[in-house]
């Protein structure tokens, strides 16, 4: 940043001080300094966060772009799901040990949460899995709100281990 001097009324050599300040600013601008210019080629270091839409005419990338995001969600009643998003495609893997839940009930309980917004479908999706410790299957609905509903057999106490892989599109 250019070093400039304060100018005040009645200052001796005020005009020269103003001129020196303008030259210092001009020198900073023409030498590159620590500023980003509107035109020309330059490198910009550090992480940048753009909070609004960004338009780029051409984009050359060195390194990689992260195209996959994964989260683990405890949806409740002993079931957790691993969600892996690739573009608008989501892979779901069921795991855990089921606890008491009724057919058609919203899943929940201590430490449980709904599906986070980035993984919510536009319309309700039904995902099929099975209970590994037996012969029963189930399906869950994930609603656009993120709520998860159990459509498997009623489970009392500790039930089977939910397993399986399912897929859905976000839009």
From TrEMBL:
Listed name of the protein: Receptor-binding protein of phage tail base-plate Siphoviridae head domain-containing protein
Tagged with keyword Kinase: no
Annotated Pfam families: Caudo_bapla_RBP
Residue span(s) of domain Receptor-binding protein of phage tail base-plate Siphoviridae head: 70-170
Subcellular location: Virion
Alphabetical UniProt keywords: Host-virus interaction
Top-level taxon in the UniProt lineage: Bacteria
Gene3D superfamilies documented for this protein: 6.10.140.2190, Phage tail base-plate Siphoviridae RBP, head domain
UniProt-listed GO biological process terms: cell adhesion; virion attachment to host cell
Keyword Glycosyltransferase included in the entry's annotation: no
């Amino acid at each position: 940043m250019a070093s400039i001097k304060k100018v005040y009324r009645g200052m001796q050599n005020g005009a020269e001080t103003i001129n020196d300040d303008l030259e210092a600013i001009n020198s900073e601008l023409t030498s590159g300094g620590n500023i980003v210019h509107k035109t020309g080629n330059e490198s910009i270091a550090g992480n940048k966060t753009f909070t609004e839409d960004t338009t780029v005419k051409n984009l050359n990338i060195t390194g990689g772009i992260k195209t996959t995001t994964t989260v683990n969600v405890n949806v409740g009643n002993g079931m957790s799901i691993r969600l892996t998003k690739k573009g608008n495609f989501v892979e779901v893997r069921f795991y855990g040990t089921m606890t008491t839940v009724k057919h058609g009930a919203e899943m929940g309980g201590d430490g449980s949460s709904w599906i986070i917004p980035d993984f919510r479908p536009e319309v309700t999706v039904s995902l099929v899995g099975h209970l590994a410790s037996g012969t029963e299957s189930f399906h869950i609905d994930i609603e656009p709100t993120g709520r998860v509903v159990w459509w498997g057999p009623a489970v009392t106490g500790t039930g089977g281990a939910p397993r399986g892989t399912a897929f859905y599109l976000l839009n």
